[in-house]
Amino acid sequence: MKKEKLSCEQARKISIVKALAFLGHLPTRNTEKEAWFLSPLRSETQASFKVSKKLNCWYDHGLGKGGNCIDLICELQNIAVREALAILAQVNTGSYALPKARILKVNRSGIVIRQVKPIQHPALLTYLKNRKISPVVAQGFCKEVHYTIKEKYGFSIGLKNNSGGWDLRNKYFKASSSPKDLRWITNESQKLIVIEGMFDLLSLVTLFPNLKRKADFLILNSIAFTEKALPYFDTYTTVELYLDQDKAGRKTTSFFLNNNATCIDKSCFYKAEKDLNAWLMKTH
């Protein structure tokens, strides 16, 4: 079937509310004249993204910018007008799907990886700021990952694991693409730092930037990989544990301490909080 092609004039007439719905964004308040959304362009807890149904235009009060339907799709997906028109043509016919040529990986988790690039989306940068993470640190370890799940579009901060899967996080989404695995980052150091997740890594290096050059890191991504992690310890003179303070985290810490004499529990300074990032957010 031949794909519909839209002119810019036709695309501007497509309902912004409808386009956002196809991309998985629903209004928090909807009246005859306007709709209010949590901004799809950044992280927020109170809706400040307004769509005028009469004018069919949008305005993000937090960013101080707005525009028409084409402007929004370009901004939201970081694409050119030509690509935005292709997406809006599919929205117009009710058969939205991102072009197959952009698919990088399909995996058993149902997450389709579309694009991987440096972190630059305003929503993700705001998310990092709210969690007290240095954007420079995040850029050094992570990427901005765009994906779809059952034709719903999303983007997150991603940390790639040893097997090529991604640990994905944004304000409203937490998941992992297949294959799932831990992540080993080596700087040829004699010290290994063991942490549970992406934001533990980013929190620790935000607090102590020199660690990025002076230590190796092992990110478990799941305590299911506890036993798989043990062989990595064998080549290090020191293994420092910065694990969570919940029951599962303490159990994992005890397991490592009992199975490797080089392990040291370093979690005492944040023991009043669940994890490193919770402590960082509370104290900084």
Q: Quick gist of this model?
A:
The protein has helices spanning 8-12, 16-22, 69-77, 81-93, 122-130, 135-141, 198-207, 211-214, 226-229, 247-259, 276-283; strands at residues 29-30, 34-37, 49-52, 57-60, 65-67, 105-106, 111-117, 143-149, 152-160, 166-170, 173-176, 183-185, 191-195, 216-219, 238-242, 263-265. The protein is of the alpha+beta class.
Q: Give the count of structural domains.
A: 3
**Percentage beta strand:** 25-35%
- Overall pLDDT metric: 88
CATH class of the largest domain: Alpha Beta
- Tally of contiguous helical segments: 11
* Sequence of strands across the biggest β-sheet: 6-7-8-9-10-11
| Gyration radius over CA | 22 Å
Q: What best-fitting shape do the alpha-carbon axes yield?
A: elongated
Task: Please describe the biggest sheet, giving its number of strands, its sense, and whether it closes into a barrel.
Answer: 6 strands, antiparallel
CATH arch. level architecture of the largest domain: 3-Layer(aba) Sandwich
Tell me the CATH topology of the largest domain.
Dna Topoisomerase Vi A Subunit, Chain: A, domain 2
Helix content: 25-40%
The span between the termini is 56 Å
The counted number of beta strands is 16
Specify the structural class. alpha+beta
InterPro entries: DNA_primase_Znf_CHC2, Znf_CHC2
GO molecular function: DNA binding; DNA-directed RNA polymerase activity; zinc ion binding
Pfam families: Toprim_2 (PF13155), Zn_ribbon_DnaG (PF01807)
Domain Zinc finger CHC2-type: 32-91
